[in-house]
Amino acid sequence: MKEAINPPKSSTPKAFFLSLILLSLFYLIFLSLQSKHPNSGHRTITINGLKIRPGYTSYDTYIHHQLHKTTNPKLRKIWTSRDWDRKIRVFTRFFSQLKQEKLLTNSSKALCVGARVGQEVEALKRVGVNDSIGLDLVPYPPIVIKGDFHHQPFDDKTFDFEFSNVFDHALYPDKFVGEIERTLKPGGICVLHVAISRRADKYSANDLYSIEPLKKLFNGSDLVRSRKVDGFGLDTEVAFENLQVLVLDRKWSVHCPILLHCNPVDYGPSSFKFFNSWLHVEGFDDVLIGVASKFVVNP
């Protein structure tokens, strides 16, 4: 009688679990590398009139290049001594004009994006906007805190006013603008100083050829106005207002929710713009009156 021969035990389960462990380990390493910077996997957008400068092999390379200027001890000494009063005077003039236009008030909670040593923050305080702070890769306490403008360290709807003259330093302009719109309150104002007629310095990450790309990037805002300025090599000032968006219940629309936004300007009999047609349904007027009563519209 022949002795039964048992087949060799399969190593498949052991190999499978070993592979699973290795894959999990590689995945965790990948996640840790991706989370090192919030924008390391962000794709650069393409918009006519806005060109991203080549040469950055990674987000770390970009940050290192920006820090090379911001941490330069000679430049920082100039910014805090010879340039200090001169720049504050110029910023004070800009902000005083914005106050006259009712785009900025003493009660505004203000942020200066890419503030370096904070001359613009000091200027805001001198014109009466005391609740002001700056954000930069290198802090300058107490008026400038550390942070990346591609990923602002603030909650949604925090500020009434945001100012920046470093748009050209944004490697990801859509993230730069998106963070401004996220942290602005509904009806909040963003003012940018940009270079249109001339190219910016070697530390710039993009080149802007008109304000049209800004209008596309600020897709949650209205362009209030633009004007020519002389601001330390930047020639154009643009102001945007963050929209107040309301979504009404589906029952008041033929096909989809009705999107409305309210601005602090008088559009005539109503303070609302309609993004799609609406159906005349009994009771709809009462809904509009109830919503409108929550807002003050200045003619």
UniProtKB/TrEMBL annotation:
Signal peptide (from-to): none
Gene Ontology MF term list: S-adenosylmethionine-dependent methyltransferase activity
Taxonomy, superkingdom: Eukaryota
Domain Methyltransferase type: 111-192
BP terms from Gene Ontology: alkaloid metabolic process
UniProt xrefs under SUPFAM superfamilies: S-adenosyl-L-methionine-dependent methyltransferases
Transmembrane intervals: 15-33
Pfam families: Methyltransf_11
Keywords, comma-separated and alphabetical: Membrane, Transmembrane, Transmembrane helix
PANTHER family in the cross-refs: F21J9.14
Protein name from the UniProt record: Methyltransferase type 11 domain-containing protein
Species classification: Eukaryota, Viridiplantae, Streptophyta, Embryophyta, Tracheophyta
